[in-house]
Specification:
Elements (H helix, E strand, L loop, with lengths): L3 E4 L4 E4 L7 E6 L10 H21 L1 E6 L6 H10 L3 H18 L15 H13 L3 E4 L2 E4 L15 H8 L13 E6 L14 E3 L1 H12 L4 E7 L3 H11 L3 E7 L2 E3 L2 E2 L10 H4 L5 H8 L8 E3 L3 H16 L14 H8 L4 H17 L5 H15 L6 H10 L8 H16 L3 H13 L10
Parallel strand pairs: 3-4, 3-9, 9-10, 11-13
Antiparallel strand pairs: 1-2, 5-6, 6-7, 7-8, 11-12
Helix pairs in contact: 2-3, 4-6, 6-7, 9-10, 10-12, 11-12, 12-13, 15-16
Length: 446
Amino acid sequence: MPLLLTNSLGGRKQVFEPRVPDHVKMYVCGPTVYNFAHIGNARPGVVFDLLRSVLERRFGRVTYARNLTDVDDKISAAAAEAGVPISAVAGRYAAAYRADMAALGVRPPTVEPKVTQSMAQIIDLAGRLIARGHAYCAEGHVLFHVPSFAAYGRLSRRNRGEMIAGARVEVAPFKRDPADFVLWKPSAPDQPGWDSPWGRGRPGWHIECSAMIEEHLGNPIDIHGGGMDLKFPHHENEIAQGTQARFWIHNGFVTVEGRKMSKSLGNVLLARDLLAEAPGEAVRLALLSAQYRQPLGWSSATLPRATRTLSRLYAALGEDDAAVTPDDPALGALHAALDDDLNTPAALAELYRLGEEARRSGPAGRGTRRAALRGAGAALGLLRLPRAGWAEALGRIARPEPGDTAGIAALRRARAAARARRDFATADRLRDQLAELGAGTADGPA
């Protein structure tokens, strides 16, 4: 069976084959590191980690680049407020992001480029776009002239009016066209900046990824991925700048209790707070419960349900540490589901079926069934622990020692998040744990 993936460039399922038969080049837009990662940031981390595993099984070598945006006006604002350089803010949250992803079973990328280390490439690309007539200079800015690229809008399939509205373009008298977007902008003396032919400044957001792709993977590449929110304008603008990918793959949004996550609603779920409530494998399982292109609905029942499911699967494994055989024929249906556009609901159904077989098997077939279950879990990045290790993971959740200020702070954040989503059972449990540690709570209205 071929590997089928939905290509956003055209909007249909297609057979995927890399340009080089045994080497896939994939780039995924990473975080802007000005705060802790929320569950919406974690979803692409897990989705593309799973896709990477499928690609490795099918084709062998995968070079996977996931960038860090470490210069941004939000980072600058946080640094100014704290009275520290932007590197201190970016470094702190980059480390936190890596730790959260590791807890979710997400492997580090092959390459992790940073914007601050790519300025020469960004400046060079902007200069080439000017030379080709796609960009122009105006009042210290370099802007991409959208009408110069006839195929603009092909990825998002929006008309011109929708594109201008969707981009929330800045009205500026020096723009030749309202849709033109910034490649380079001037920096004030108190802002981070780099010397360029157009004066001291910093890059616009969109050019960063195009430059880093060229530097680390070459152009064209096989797969460019990211969240659905990046399709327009970010990925549309990357294409205009010259980025070529055979497949553009996007994961859907995460909603909380049926509502979009937002600071104003107070329902933004940080990955690290969820990791204070359940083991990382439970969060990963929850993130894989919906097919990657579909919206993922998160509720107060999501994590407890995932934790119970994993406990049953670990119980089915027994005390045996069965060896994983990736080409086990018993895994055929699971691999077929993943090869069909990462159909994780079908793959998880097969995992649960194998779990029931392992649980019900007699002594003669127990080893074989448990090995198949362990292999199915490995294909999804689950069941990575011995059974005793899962019990220990459950025991460690949200149980800091007295005086562990970081652990107590994580408990408080987790409890506040539980109350915001009206998960009062979890909130009460965390309140009791805080009381046991001598750390009180100051509750307002829920």
